[in-house]
Specification:
Blueprint lengths: L1 E2 L34 E3 L2 E3 L4 E5 L6 E6 L3 H18 L4 H17 L1 H12 L3 H21 L6 E3 L7 E8 L2 E5 L7 H13 L2 E5 L6 H13 L6 E3 L7 H10 L3 E7 L2 H12 L4 E5 L4 E5 L5 H13 L9 E7 H18 L1 E2 L15 H16 L3 E4 L14 E4 L6 H4 L6 E7 L2 H8 L4 E2 L1 E5 L3 H10 L4 E4 L14 E2 L2 E2 L12 E8 L3
Parallel strand pairs: 1-15, 8-9, 8-11, 9-10, 11-12, 13-14, 13-20, 14-18, 17-18, 20-21
Antiparallel strand pairs: 2-3, 4-5, 6-7, 7-24, 12-23, 16-17, 19-22
């Protein structure tokens, strides 16, 4: 892995690159998109206090943002409930036009939105641009799905009755999103909700509220009515109380959450008292299996793409690399070479960077703890394994071999740039290891054996399978997991159903 260095021909004295602080005012972002207040009822709303949004590259403050509490959050819920009364009866075609306009505005402002993501999240600017395009695609997709919410006419068992099933919006939806995709995790949920006729209150992660607020500005510009899209930013200290309000307020009908399994269980308990509809996209611990029949170069490229996107900070990152014994040594050697050649650590605003900082110090400590545990139990560090010389929350992309299933890195999600490789003998053993955990979001495997491909794809206990492919997500495909990785699906034609109720109408006396 490389530090992001100047060109090779420059003097050695210049080969001491350090990421420097980029004030948000220096990024040439349209002022209208840099917002520090919450958004409720179509208005920008201050709070009695603020909290800092930090640049993960330097730890310095980017902006102070309104710190919403219980009162401001309840007001946002009321605004959403009021707006729901008219939004629910807005023609599907009109909702479709507004969502498409919002998507178009995202694309027109994609460079500025990407700068905001990189500033608050740290990911490379190229990845941030990709996220904005991906995020906009959900608004475009659900603008089309808004006009396809069909019901059913059901043959009646009686001559004087007619049976119909219609779909209606559930009501106000709470949207609680993580920091790793601060735009896309919002639009994937909100696009479906608004298309269905629901209104939303978004609580973005405390690390990355700026993207959510920029989306509110573009929603206003698109003509989406006030109160339909509300944003309640809050600090880590206020998150438990604000989250409880969003999950227990009687005016809220639906909760959609992306985050850890532990937090999801807390929210489910909150939702239980009022029996709210829930969608949960929770933790993953994805296996990536490489069989002896695999195309080795394809498997290595897939592992790099799956493991190290966003510095390993995605819920569908491959966390456990299972490699069959016949190809194991060659795979480890080639993966180490690819990591050294392709991965560059540095500021997200520098063009060659592929690996930005981890989101905060807690993330670094978790990665360190897993590596230390693995080494203590006999794992070998092939490359990386330490904090990066750039300091702060930068960490070396790490490859571990001689990994066993009793190590912490094989038992819990990493959310960092660590690739642990486990050697296995048989297909049955690989399936058993892959399915041994209590979560099942994504899984990947590489094989050129058609019969094996069908067997393994059907046996993996996950919601999504990548076959000879390390990148899964698209607006057209259903995203979600099994076991303790969540409830429901996002994206695709199924995503809008999470925000709809089916009503049976029996028309008698005919």
């Amino acid at each position: 892995m490389h530090v992001l260095l100047p060109a090779r021909h420059l003097l050695p004295s210049l080969l001491c690159y350090k990421p420097h602080y980029r004030p948000i005012s220096s990024l040439s972002i349209a002022p209208a998109l840099v917002r520090s207040e919450g958004h409720s009822g179509g208005r920008w709303v201050p709070a009695t206090s603020t909290f800092p949004v930090l640049d993960p590259s330097s730890g310095r403050e980017l902006l102070s943002v309104s710190d919403f509490g219980v009162q401001e959050t309840r007001e946002a819920v009321r605004s959403a409930h009021t707006a729901f009364q008219s939004w629910r009866v807005t023609l599907a075609k009109e909702r479709s036009v507004l969502l498409r306009k919002w998507s178009e505005l995202m694309m027109q402002n994609k460079e500025d939105l990407a700068k905001l993501i990189t500033a608050e999240n740290g990911k490379p600017l190229k990845e941030s641009l990709g996220e904005v395009v991906y995020a906009a695609s959900f608004l475009e997709w659900f603008s089309e799905e808004a006009r396809r919410v069909y019901g059913d006419f059901i043959p009646s068992p009686a001559k004087n009755k007619r049976i119909l099933a219609v779909k209606q919006p559930v009501g106000v939806a709470t949207i609680i999103t993580p920091w790793n995709f601060p735009s896309a995790m919002i639009t994937r949920k909100v696009g479906a909700a608004l298309a269905a006729g629901c209104t939303v209150v978004v609580k973005p992660a405390e690390d990355t509220p700026l993207s959510a607020l920029a989306l509110a500005e573009l929603a206003d510009q698109a003509g989406i009515p006030g109160g339909v899209y509300n944003v309640t930013p809050c600090s880590r200290q206020k998150t438990p109380t604000v989250g409880e309000v969003l999950c227990t307020d009687p005016l809220v009908a639906k909760i959609s959450f992306t985050g850890s399994t532990a937090t999801g269980k807390v929210l489910l308990k909150h939702a239980a008292d009022t029996v709210k509809r829930v969608s949960m996209e929770l933790g993953g611990h994805a296996p990536l299996i490489v069989f002896d029949s695999a195309n080795l170069d394809q498997a290595v490229a897939g592992a790099v793409a799956s493991k190290f996107r966003n510095s390993g900070q995605t819920c569908v990152c491959s966390n456990r690399l299972l490699v069959q014994k016949g190809i194991h040594d060659a795979f480890v050697q080639k993966l180490a070479a690819a990591m050294n050649k392709e991965l560059f650590v540095g500021s997200g605003f520098d063009e060659r960077t592929t690996q930005g900082p981890l989101i905060n110090e807690r993330a670094v400590e978790k990665v360190e703890k897993q590596i230390q545990d693995a080494v203590a139990r006999g794992a070998r560090v092939v490359c990386g394994g330490k904090r990066h010389s750039l300091g702060g929350t930068f960490f070396q992309p790490t490859l571990l071999s001689d990994v066993t299933t009793d190590m912490m890195c094989t038992q819990e999600e990493t959310f960092g740039p660590v690739a642990p490789v486990i050697k296995f003998d048989s297909e049955e053993e690989a399936i058993a290891i892959a399915n041994s955990v209590n979560v099942g979001l994504a899984g990947y495997f590489f094989s050129q054996d058609p019969a094996q491909i069908w067997r393994v794809a059907e046996q993996l206990e996950v919601g999504m399978v990548g076959v000879n492919e390390g990148i899964l997500s698209s607006a057209e495909a259903p995203f979600g997991g099994v076991k303790q990785s969540g409830i429901g699906r996002e994206g695709s034609k199924y995503g809008i159903d999470e925000y709809l109720e089916i009503k049976y109408i029996c028309y008698g006396g005919l």
